[in-house]
Structures are given as structure tokens and as C-alpha cells.
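The step that takes the researchers longest sounds almost clerical: writing a folded protein down as plain text. The outcome of that step, for a single protein, is printed below.
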Amino acid sequence: LFYGEVKNSLNNETHLINKAGGKREAGGRRIVPAVDIFRTDKRYDLVYIDPPWEQSRGGYKKCRPCSSGKALDYPVMTLEEIKQFHGKVLPQITKEKHSIFMWVIDKYLVQAETFMEELGYTRHARIVWNKQRGMALAYTLRFTCEYLLWFYIKGNMLMPLPGTRGKYPNYLEESPQRHSQKPECAYEMLEDMFSGMDKIELFARKQRKGWDCWGNEVTAVADKV
């Protein structure tokens, strides 16, 4: 367990380094995050985060064979653990002027905005991603959207490059390639708006050219640049 083993140990920095940001064995390979966020001296203009929100596959229903009520196939963190993680890491890795982009699902939308406010941030925008498919929870609406929240600290907001201001809407549409994978168009938007700036992705699944990254699945460089 890469992130989940941080449970009950968030005040122990050594444990955080070893369990949340250190090495682990997977299929005989040694996996190491590209950046040790707990020890690096580097500071970033933009931090892009996809927290492992605590959830499951939903209760079993005969009409939904994929529903099982079982845990997801990747480690998750509780809301309090995610809040403590952000409170510890963000002050250590950000420049004075910076912007935070955080993915959140419907279940935690309000709570995420609340704890970021408690950490001194203000929400600038909710960027809606329409995945074009999703589950019909409680057989009412089909939940097809996730949210990319843009946060900043008042007086120290990192602004997009002048030529990109007003270029992009607060709406993304792209079908996901696999569970939890975020849209390519989000990366492309941020790479355009903040070209040449220092960027890092937390809870990353793979390396990407032009970004530093930290995550338990970081094993290969993305093909698309």
C-alpha cells in the first residue's frame, strides 16, 4: 500500500517518506517517485493533483455486473489524510506565486473546497470534465462529471500567459481511457496556459515530458509530449 499506509502516521515525516513517497516492489521491479517531495528544495509554479479519494465500486446489483461493493484496485486515502497531506506538502514545494489544480469527484466537492480554504486557498474556478459515461447512482442521474478545481492564495495567484487568457472554457469533454485516468486535454490546456513554468503532478501514474512527478505508478514517460 503506497498512499494508504500513511494512515495514522501523517505526523511522522520518516514514515511519510518511506511509505507515501518511497520505494516499493511491484512485479519484481523497483518503483521510485521521480521527485522526493518531502526532501526536495525545488519550488513549483503549478501543482496538479489527483488525490486517491476514498470510495468503492458500489453495492452489488444484478443489473450491474461490474458493481461489487469491493475496494478499488488502487490504494486510497481518507479525507482527513488528504487534507493533512496537502497541509504538509504544499507549503514545502510551492513558490510564493503559484496555482493549484486539484481533481475531485462529486462526493468530495464541497469538502475539498472547504479544507483548501482552511489551508489558506481560494477557489478560482471549477473546471467541469464530462466523461460522457458514468454510473447512475440510486438509479436517478448518471454521474458523468468530475471537477478540476483551480485554487490560489490571495495576492499570489499565478496567472496564465497573456496569449492564453480567455482561450479555454471551464468545460472539458473527453472519454476516459481507464478508471481514474484524467483527460489528455487537461494536460494540454495547462501546458499551454503555463508554458515554461515549473510544474509537478502529485499522485501521478506516469512521467510526462516537461513535468516533475510523484506517485506510486510512475514507471514510464508518456508518449505524447
In short: DSSP finds four helices and nine strands in the chain.
